[in-house]
């Protein structure tokens, strides 16, 4: 059978009988790996006495059909073809890369012979594109982080985007030559990454999000260092951190309840002076950073009034002392005051000394 086909082919090619009678549309025909292609002839259904399909330059028989005998399928094509014996069209199934190449068909219809050829390109569609990020989250700033874009398929080109903008190698981002591996390290590299893979016949996207954990750092407390008693004051603590930090405050050694970045007081007191410590905590890493702010509450207004009050008290005491001493002088014969309060009587006794500059102790004795 094979020998007869070769003779047949040679005859057909040499004869020139069918020159110009193309039965295949201009190619090439494109197929995808694992898929099917249909080599459809341009003739209307008719009775064909012979159909031969061959592949390659040194022709390999795909199928050899004689109307008297039926189809004989070539080695390697069993179960992979479907032949339409009325048009000579051939369907080739489960394409492999090895199917790339040139296909010829010879059709015989009574005493007419058609000879045509075309070529097939088999492309592999890209599939299963993925981005793998190492290490696993949480991704802590300072370590090396890589994003690897993998996909099945041939002749693949890759393109990276971050937050919708093309990525190229730079100071902190390094893209490998084949663009498969992207290396990042900074907090500003957080974002949505997309790897677009494509070849002649298909394309696919893979995307993933990188969240770089950092901080707290760059801490500061904003607020006054010196205020006067009674003034309102506000201290505001800030830090760079991902995730956003939680804050705690201490005044001197005492913790202030709450987790606000702000500490405020409507009316300051002397005791509000001292060291204010703000501590920021990164809840993912547990890292803590503290910063101290000194506040001094000056007592100008209050100081003056203390002097005034003290002065007044001293004068009042002096007046009382003089008055008491004078009174005592005049009643020194008795030397006792009696005071009745409720059913109890109190006697106030003085030791009297006529030398005014030297006062002895007074005492109160309780009467029964
Ligand atoms: C196959 O692809 C080529 C280019 O890649 C194109 O010129 C041709 O028209 C395609 N064939 C068919 C049948 O679509
Ligand atoms: C041609 O194809 C038809 C339909 O598939 C089938 O019934 C017939 O048996 C085939 N002829 C030969 C000679 O194989
Ligand atoms: C058909 O074969 C001829 C001669 O081998 C070649 O020049 C031509 O490019 C082929 N046509 C197709 C569509 O492959
Ligand atoms: C890969 O690309 C090259 C050149 O671009 C091309 O010659 C070759 O046929 C392609 N291979 C596949 C399997 O697509
Ligand atoms: C893949 O990404 C590219 C570039 O961002 C976009 O133009 C395209 O629409 C995306 N395709 C799909 C299927 O999401
Ligand atoms: C957390 O603290 C450790 C030890 O102090 C330090 O090495 C690391 O860089 C810190 N991490 C962050 C994200 O600041
Ligand atoms: C905190 O310390 C400052 C300075 O040592 C002091 O003046 C202030 O009274 C202290 N306040 C409290 C509430 O401990």
From TrEMBL:
The chain crosses the membrane at residues 304-331. Residues 129-211, 216-296 form the Ig-like domain. InterPro entries: Ig-like_dom, Ig-like_dom_sf, Ig-like_fold, Ig_sub, Ig_sub2, IgSF_CEA-related. Gene3D superfamilies: Immunoglobulins. Keywords: Disulfide bond, Glycoprotein, Immunoglobulin domain, Membrane, Signal, Transmembrane, Transmembrane helix. SUPFAM superfamilies: Immunoglobulin. Residues 1-20 form the signal peptide. This is Ig-like domain-containing protein. It comes from Oncorhynchus tshawytscha.
């Amino acid at each position: 059978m094979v020998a007869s086909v070769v003779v047949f082919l040679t005859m057909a090619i040499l004869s020139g009988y069918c020159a110009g009678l193309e039965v295949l549309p201009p190619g090439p025909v494109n197929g995808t790996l694992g898929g099917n292609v249909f080599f459809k002839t341009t003739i209307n259904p008719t009775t064909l006495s012979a159909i031969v399909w061959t592949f390659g330059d040194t022709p390999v028989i795909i199928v050899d059909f004689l109307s008297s005998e039926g189809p004989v399928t070539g080695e390697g094509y069993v179960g992979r073809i479907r032949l339409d014996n009325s048009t000579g069209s051939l369907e080739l199934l489960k394409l492999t890369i090895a199917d790339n190449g040139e296909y010829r068909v010879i059709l015989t219809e009574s005493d007419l012979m058609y000879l045509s050829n075309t070529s097939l390109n088999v492309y592999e569609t890209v599939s299963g594109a993925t981005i793998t990020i190492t290490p696993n989250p949480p991704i802590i700033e300072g370590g090396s982080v890589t994003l690897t874009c993998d996909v099945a398929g041939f002749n693949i080109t890759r393109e990276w985007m971050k937050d919708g903008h093309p990525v190229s190698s730079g100071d902190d981002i390094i893209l490998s030559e084949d663009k498969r591996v992207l290396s990042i390290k900074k907090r500003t590299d957080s974002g949505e990454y997309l790897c677009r893979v494509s070849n002649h016949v298909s394309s696919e996207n893979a995307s993933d999000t990188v969240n770089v954990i950092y901080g707290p750092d760059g801490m500061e407390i904003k607020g006054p260092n010196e205020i006067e008693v009674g003034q309102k004051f506000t201290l505001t603590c800030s830090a760079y951190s991902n995730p956003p930090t939680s804050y705690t405050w201490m005044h001197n050694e005492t913790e202030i309840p709450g987790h606000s970045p702000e500490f405020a007081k409507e009316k300051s007191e002397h005791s509000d002076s001292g060291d204010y410590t703000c501590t920021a905590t990164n809840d993912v890493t547990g890292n803590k950073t503290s910063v101290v702010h000194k506040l001094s509450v000056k007592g100008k207004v209050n100081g003056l009034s203390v002097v005034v009050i003290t002065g007044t008290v001293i004068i009042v005491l002096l007046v009382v002392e003089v008055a008491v001493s004078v009174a005592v002088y005049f009643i020194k014969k008795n030397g006792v005051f009696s005071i009745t309060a409720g059913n109890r009587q109190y006697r106030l006794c003085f030791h009297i000394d006529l030398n005014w500059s030297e006062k002895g102790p007074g005492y109160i004795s309780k009467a029964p």
